[in-house]
Amino acid sequence: MTAQTARRFNLAGGAITLVTVICAVIWAFPIYWGIISSLKPEDEVVRPVIELWPETLTFDHYWFALTETQIGSWYLNSIVTALGVTFITVTTSMFAGYAISQLRFPGRTALWWLILASFMVPTQVLIINHFVLMANMGLLNSWAGIILPQLIHPVIIIVYKQFFDQVPRDFREAAVMDNASEWRILFKVYVPMNWGVTTALSIVTFIWAWNAFLWPFLAVTKTEMMTITVGITQVWDAFGVYYARQLSAAVLAGFPVALAYLLFQRRVTQAITLSAGIKG
Q1: CA distance 103 to 101
Q2: Is the entire prediction scored with pTM above 0.85?
Q3: Quick check: helix, strand or coil at residue 118?
């Protein structure tokens, strides 16, 4: 490689880095602005000027969100529903992926094509059906009513099937020769060999369930049963909207998933890569 070619590569790399930094700043600025605005008095928030740092730093809005709202109940509802969606979705998807990958039964191919076809259907299309079903079953304003319609994740089944397909058949044949049941083969052979996939999918499913807004917004009308994403829309005052209070509640709502992402960044990236590979 000549010096001129190396110089061109350096210039190209520098340009790409500069563009990446600019895009990162543009993406992160609204988050920064929301956090900083939540630490300002309300009169500073509504000023028609851009102030990158508050003149008066205050935590009153966070205190209001923690003491004058039902944020504790909203957190509890989000934790229960997000954990419920994560556990049920990952577990059932694991069973389904194993059955389609390793078992032979009538209708297996048709079931697989049905799962692939359902992957193409946006969940928003099913909202009306879900609402009618939950209403007829008397499950609105309940944890079960929030959880059940959010259990449709064909992509997780597809990911599991692909990884179970890659496990060498010798392991299964050895387990069968030892008279191991299908349950034991699944939990002693296939799950341990794909434990990283399970962890990654669980983290991403939890984050997705925590951030869900549309269905919890439709399924819950009682304030005490709202999830955190829906509950923060109730942070208002009799005299009008207080933007700083709403922003402080939004920051509190996003803190758990931000923390989860920072702690499990590699697993989250792995799961996103797996999902993107399926979609591609």
Answers
A1: 6
A2: no
A3: helix
